[in-house]
Amino acid sequence: MITYLIRRILYAIPILIGVNLLTFALFFVINTPDDMARMQLGMKRVTPDAIEKWKQQRGYDKPLLFNSQAAGTKKLTDTIFFQKSASMFIFDFGYSDDGRSISREISTRMFPSLVIALPTFVVGLLLYITFALLMALFRGTMLDIAGVTVCVILMSISSLFYIIGGQFLVSKLWHWVPISGYAGGMDSLRFILLPVLIGIVSGIGASSRWYRTIFLEEVGRDYVRTARAKGLSELRVLFRHVLKNAMIPILTGVVAVIPLLFMGSLLTESFFGIPGLGSYTIDAIQAQDFGVVRAMVFLGSVLYIVGLILTDISYTVVDPRVRLQ
Question: Own/partner pairs for 175-182, CB < 8 Å, 24+ apart?
Answer without folding.
Answer: 179/272, 180/271, 180/272, 180/273, 181/272, 181/273, 182/112, 182/272, 182/273, 182/274, 182/275
